[in-house]
Amino acid sequence: MTEEPVTDNEFAQVVGVCWSEHKVLTATGVTSQTLAAWRKTGRILGLQTSDGTRLYPVDQFVQRADAVEVRPALLPVLGALRSFDPWAVAVLLHTPAPELDDASPLGWLTDGGAPEVLARLADTVAQEWAAGTPPQGSLGEHYNVATDPVSGLTVVSLGRPVSAVEVAEALDDD
Known about the structure:
This protein is an alpha+beta fold. The chain has helices at 10-15, 21-28, 32-41, 75-80, 86-93, 105-110, 115-130, 138-142, 164-172; strands at 18-20, 47-48, 54-57, 61-64, 67-70, 144-147, 154-157, 161-163.
């Protein structure tokens, strides 16, 4: 078995760099209780690995004065999608969409795109996911999210099925 850097994992490439919970607590200056409340209410995106470790995609943060915070324009998106699998949301944030001129949601914000357009897209995706229909347009071409009825694992397809356990193991190999 050969070892590969985490960056060679296709799912890690999509989700990007993540911070540990300790790093987020230090950078934001909030308590563990506040961070847990933020996750529950969709104010921050936290990804839980198979061993219970929480990771936070760095792309959701911006530096403001002497503190780090979640991008304000991302808050409506995270709120609209809070009841769905955080791993699926992380993939969505990096997936190009025709509604965003083929930019990903994070790329749209970075390039100065209108937050209202992104919020509408998030509402549409939330409705589609709640109805159990795959995302329309290019989003559906890039990934699919389903729960394996036998194992209960969330499976995200990026050209091939990738289980949450496989992703967690790849991200934990550092």
